[in-house]
Amino acid sequence: MLHIASRWARLLLPACILLAVGSERALSKATDGQAPWVGETFWSTQCTGRAQGFGPYDYTLRSQLPDKLSIVEVAHFTPSVEHLIAGSRASNPLADLDYTLSAWPNHHRALNTAIRARLRNRDNYRSTGFTPAECYLQRAINFSPNDDVARMLYGLLQHRMGRLQDALATYRTAEQLNPGNLQTQYNLGLLLTDLGKYDDAARYAQHVYARGFPLPGLRRRLQEKGYWPGAQ
User: Per residue in 181-196, is it b (16+ CB within 10 Å) or e — as a string?
Assistant: First the structure.
């Protein structure tokens, strides 16, 4: 199992939140059978990965393709794979994760799992031989450019890897794509506290908590810095 320091665990997305914000809207770019590898790794090499086999299918249109989704989720993206405990059809859960994201490039929960795997091996992921999360995410964004959740997840990874200005730009784009996504706004608030922009972070916090957002981490950070009503 992956263990993450509590300060950062608040950034990772619970599955229930991912499902809630993964709205299924019609996209400006139709799936055309192509999901090329694009972009670079965080160690500045070209992104590469599995050749396309089954799929690719757009996760934002998953309600229209339940049979295609179940083929992958039942056989490969099992709970043990999602939680990086054990593989399903392969000995290594990263192999089943790779198959899942090959078929469904912007599968939100699978991308979230890829992020957790990347963070667990942030200094030596290259030695695993598997595609790193930043490549899956860039491929997902290129494949489904209006998917705000994929962009939010990319911003989350950039944030966690210390690429704060890149994360800010990515979160802003995700927010523009879907201004109603409270998870994006919450993560953006956390990033703004890391950038020392507490007034801006407080405005995001007031907005998300007024709408019932459940995670307390942003409020606690602002309380610690004296930017929350009643803070000492």
Answer: bbbbbbbbbbbbbeee
Q: Where are the domains of the chain?
A: 6-20+35-147
Angle at which helices 164-177 and 182-194 cross, to 10°: 160
Give mean pLDDT in consecutive 10-residue pieces for the chain, a chain of 232 residues.
40 50 40 83 94 91 95 95 91 94 97 97 89 98 97 98 98 98 98 97 97 97 89 51
Query: DSSP character for 64?
Result: G
- Is residue 144 within 8 Å of 106, Cβ to Cβ? yes
Please report, to the nearest 10 degrees, the dihedral formed by the alpha carbons of residues 71, 75, 80, 81 taken in order: -70
Check if the beta carbon of residue 29 is closer than 8 Å to that of residue 144. Answer: yes
Q: What is the pLDDT of residue 31?
A: 45
Angle at 219 between CA 12 and CA 13, to 5 degrees: 15
